[in-house]
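User: structure tokens for this one?
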Amino acid sequence: MADKILVVDDEPSIVTLLEFNLKKSGYDVITATDGKMALEKAEMEHPDLIVLDLMLPELDGMEVCRALRMRRMMVPILMLTARDEEFDKILGLELGADDYMTKPFSPREVVARVKAILRRTNISQNNKEQDVNDKIAIGDLEIFPNRYEAFFKGEKLVLTPKEFELLVYLARHKGRVLPREKLLDEVWDYDFVGDTRIVDVHVSHLREKIESNTRKPQYIKTIRGFGYKLEEPDKP
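Assistant:
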């Protein structure tokens, strides 16, 4: 069965362009032209990924993204923005988008991003049935990669797909310093140059969920000028 993509944009030409190219690549595509319709279709259709424009009537992309995450719908979101302002990009990621692209863009690049996101998500989903006992334990953190679950101090963490994939990758390389570029390549699966600030924002999200003090992290440490590493917390 083909992956289902929800394309949300109020410009008919963009919707038509993306729909044509995604269908050509083998995806099942549904569309929406405003934020309210996007939420309704997301709940009814359960898409595998949402391509979401920032500027929309009714509800804008930020509000749609926030509403989906508040409803614990962790479908991957690729946000589109006509602006090239860092604020918009970072805010979109803060609200739970997995990635963003700035207009104008080439349809080929959008399809490449969609494929990369879904490839990683599908690998994780397929692994669920392979070994349900696979477990990584680091301090109070317990991660079950093949069950797509993580717990901190016994409480289940609510993570977006990309947050979970990043956490698993850091945990599987515990104690190793990982450059931002390496994380971008391995977790986001980019075959082209990406923006490493995406990594920083997702690390920040993870810290909010597993660190007692995000200013003095015990798990995910920043190695200035290089990247990050996940390690065992200091014993009290």
